[in-house]
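In response to a reviewer's request, we include the raw inputs and outputs for one of the modeled complexes. The two entities were modeled together in a single run.
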Amino acid sequence: MVAAPLAGAQEPGETIEVQGARPEGSARAPGTAATIIDIALFGGEVRSVAEMLSTAPGVSIHALGGPGQAATLSLRGASADESLVLLDGIPLQGPGGGAVDLSSIPATLLDRMVVSRGVLGAQFGAGALGGVLELLPRSARGTWAGGAEAAVGSFGTERLALDAAMPAGNGSAVVALQGDRTSGDFEYARQLTPEIPGAPFYGFTRENGDATRGSGLLRISQELGSDLGLDFLLQGSAGLRGLPGPSSAPTPHSREFDAAGTGGLRLRGSSGEVAWSLRASGRLDRSELRGVTAFGDCEDGTPDCPRQDQRSSSARAEGELALPAGDANTLRLLLAGGGEWVHGTTGAHRRGLFSAAVREDFALASGFWLHSALRLDRVGRQAGLSPAITAEWKPAPVHPLSLRAGWGLSFRTPTFTELYLERGGIAANPDLQPERAWSVDVGAEWRLALLTLSATALWSSYRQLILYQLFPPARVKPFNVGEARIAGVELQAVVPLPAHLLATLSYSFLDAVNRADGHKLAYRPPHRLFARLARRGERLEGYGEASFTSAIPRNAFDTAFVGSQLLLNAGVGVRAAGPLWIDVEAKNLLDKRTYEDLFQYPLPGLSIALIARARL
Amino acid sequence: MKRIALLLLVAACGGKYQAPPPVASIALPDGSQLNPYDSTKPGKARPQGMAAAAGRVYVTLSNQRDTDTFPVNAGPGFLAAFNPSSDKVTLIDLGGTDGHQCQNPGFVRASADGYLYSPCSGNFSGTDGARAIVEVDPLANVVTRRAAIPDGRVPNGVAATANKIWTGDAFTTTVFSIDRKTFAADPSAPVAVDCAKSKFSYVADVMTIRGDVYALCASDTSGELYRLDPDGGAIKSHTTVGPNPTELAGLDDGRIVVVNAGDNTLTVVTASGVTLSASKVLTFSSQTAALQDVRAFGRTVFTVASGSNTAQRIDLDAQGGPKVVAEANFGPGAGPYNILPLDDMQAIVSNRGTNSIAAANWVTVK
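The model returned the following C-alpha cells for the whole complex.
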C-alpha cells in the first residue's frame, strides 16, 4: 500500500516527476503491508514525525502530551519496544535499549518514512513484532539545492530548519539542520469531580512543558568507480525539556536532557548481476533526568536529588550480498555482528549481537511472486530463528489489482531497561525470557496512477509477553506473563481529485485481547480513522484533516477508558514571492482542551502557526 | 511575522474555564520536625492511615525520604494527633529510645477498649528491627507497648480483638496474631488466606467487624475476603471480590464494602449465617484512578482515589442502585490515601502527596 504518491515536486519551478515504478513498500520486505509517507507532502505544516505517522493505518502514537514531549510508536497493537525504528537502515534505540522517542527525530531531516507492518523479524531482525519504521533521510541530488523553513506559533513554539544539497567530489552531499523550541504552556481543562454528572471543568495552565531541541544531518555519497560507491551518514540530536507529569500529579521541577548520535559508513558495489554492500555503523544515546524522584519531583542540585544519567551505545558491522538464483529469482544473504552497551541507572551491561539471514524472491508462473526469508539472531545469550513468507499475485504485470498474503514468526529479547532498571517504582527482572509472536495477514490493493485502494486483514498471536505487573508493596516489575491475540483490519484510500486535490483516508480496527482472561489489552485503540483533503498547486496550497480515535481501554479489566477524541486540523498557504511560501496552520480547530493522552497528560487546545518556507 | 503570530496566539488562547477552587488543608509537620536520622536528609510526613480516638484524629506519618529509587525511611514513624477544627498537631514518636523501633507505620486502628494500634512495616526487607506493632494510649498520647515481628514477615493492616492483635503479611498471603496480654507474636503458624493470582498476592488489610476478623487477600487478577475466628484465626468463610482490592469497611447493617483498585469497582459483601456472598455494585468513572480506601459511617460509604485526587460519598441504597452522590477533589498532586468520615456528611483525607489533612468539600449530584 502506498499512502503518498511519489510525485516529489512540491516547489514552484520544480518539475513534477512521476517516477515509472512507485515503491510499494520496503525494499527489505517485499510483499509486506506497508505505507510510504512522503515528508514533502506536509510542506507548510509544522509536523512532528509522530504526527505524520499517525496518518497511516495500523499506527498509533503514545505521546506524553504537547509539543516536544516524548512520543513512541505502536504498530498493530504491539508495544513501542516491539516496533523497530531504523534510520537509513541503522537500528535506533532509546537510552535503555528499548522504545525510540520519536520527538528526538526532526521531520525536516527526512525524505520519506516507510511503515511496514507485521511480524518482520526475518526481514529486519529480532524485535520487529509489530512492524518496522524506516526513516529515510534526505538524499543528495548531485546539483545545488536548498531550502529554509521558519515557523512561529502558539505556546511559544518556534522552528527553524535549513538544508542544502550539493555536488561533492565524485558524488553529492546533503546537510540539514533543525532547531525547535516551545514554551509548552498551553491551557487545558479538567473535571475535578468526574463522578458527578455535569460537573464543571476548570482551567489550568500547563507548567514545565517547555522543550528545546537542535538536530543535524550530514549525508555524503561518493562514486569510487563505475560499480563502487561509498555512503556516509551522520545524524545527531540534543534536547532539553521539562517533564510536566500527568495532570493529576504535576512535576514542576523534573527535567530531561537527551543527546543521541548515529553514524554509518557503507561501501557498495556490484559485479555483473551480483550486488554487495559492507556497512559499519554506531549509535550513542544519553538521557539525564534532573529533579526526578521515585514518585514525584525534587529540586535539582539539592542533596537528595541526584541526576540520573543513562547511556547506551551500539556498534555493528554487516555485509549483504544479492545474487541471481536461476532465471528470475534473487538470493540475498546477510551477515552481521556487533555489540550494545548501557551504563547508568541500569548499571553497566553489554551484550553481543550476531545475525545471519537469507532471503529469496521467486518469480513464479501466472503472476505469482513468493518471498521467503529466514534469519538467525543472537542477542546476548538469547537466540532465535525468525522465518517468514509472503506471496503476491497480479493478474498481469501492469494490472491495477494485486493480492498478497504474509506470515512471519519472530521474537524480541528483553531491553536493558526491563532486565536491569531499578528506579522509582520500577523493579528489574534479569530472568526475563524473549517474547514470541507470529502473525498472518492477507490484503488486496487496487493501484491506478495516483489512485490507491487497499485493504488488509491481520491476525497476530503473542506469548511470553513482557508486562509490568504490580509488585508489592508499591512497585511494578516486568514478567513474561502475557498471552495475547490481536486481530484487525487496515483500510486505506488515496484518491486524486480534480483541481490538484488529493484525498487520503485510512482506517484501522484492532481487537486486542488478553488470552488469559478475555479482557481487552489496555492502551490499544480499537478504531482509528484519519481523513485528509489536500491541495498542492503552483500558487495556493492547503489541507483539512480529521483524526478520530475511539475510546481506549486504560486498565486490564475493561472498566476504565480514555475517551474518544476527534481532532480537526487545517492549513492554507500562498506563494508570496518567487520560491517563498507563507502558510497558516491551525490544529485542534474545535479547541478541545479536555483531551488527555493515555497517561493523563493533557493535550493542547487550538494552536495556530505561521510558517514561511522557501526552496531553491 | 511574529506580531501576526502573537495576535493569532491571543485569539487561540482565550480563557474559557474558571480557575479551580482552593482547597483548605492542615499542613503536617515537615521532615525536620520528625527527628530525621540525618539532619541534612530529612523526610516528609507522607501521612497514611487515620483513626478517631479520645476526641481526636490520629494519622500515621511514614516519615520517608524520596530518592531516585525507592523511598527510604528518613526517621522514626509518628502518629500525629489533631482536632479537625484546629491547626494544632501533636506528634507521637513511635520509634522508641533509639528511634529505630518503628518505621513506616501505614495503618492505625482503635480497639474497643480505647487503645490505638499501628503496624510498622520497616524497610520491607522483612528482617529489620523497625517492624513492630505499637500500642498507643490516646489519653496520654504515649506509646505503651511494642511487639516485635518475627523475621520474614512485614505487618500490613491491623485488627484489634479482645485477646489478639491481628495483622497481615505484605509479602505472603498469611495473617498472624499478637497476644494482647504478653504483647508478643503468637507461636502458632500463620493462617493462610490465599487468592487466585497471576503474579503477585499479599494481604491488603485485616479488620475487626462485628467481633470477627476479616482479612483481605489481594492479587493482580483477583481478591478474596476471609472471615476468621477472632481468637484462633480459624477460617469461617470466604468470598471472591474484585481484582487488587485495597480496603474494606463494615456498615452498621452488617454489610461489608470493598474497593477494588484493579477494575475500579466497589463490592458489597453480605453475610448470611457463616456464608459470605459478594456483589459488584458500582463501577467508578474512568477518570477515578487508584482507589485506596473505603470507610463507612452508618450506611453511608466513603471512598478515596489517590490517582485522581478525589473522594466519593456513596449511597448504597439509592434508587436505581448504589451511586456516587457527592465527590470532592483535593488538588493536583494531593494523593489522598485514607479517608475518615466524621459523620454521614463530613470526611477528612490524608494527602500523602502534599503532606496534609484536608476536609472534603463535596460537589453533590443535583
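As requested, we also summarize the result in words. DSSP finds three helices and 35 strands in chain A. Residues 83 and 504 of chain A are 24 Å apart (CA to CA).
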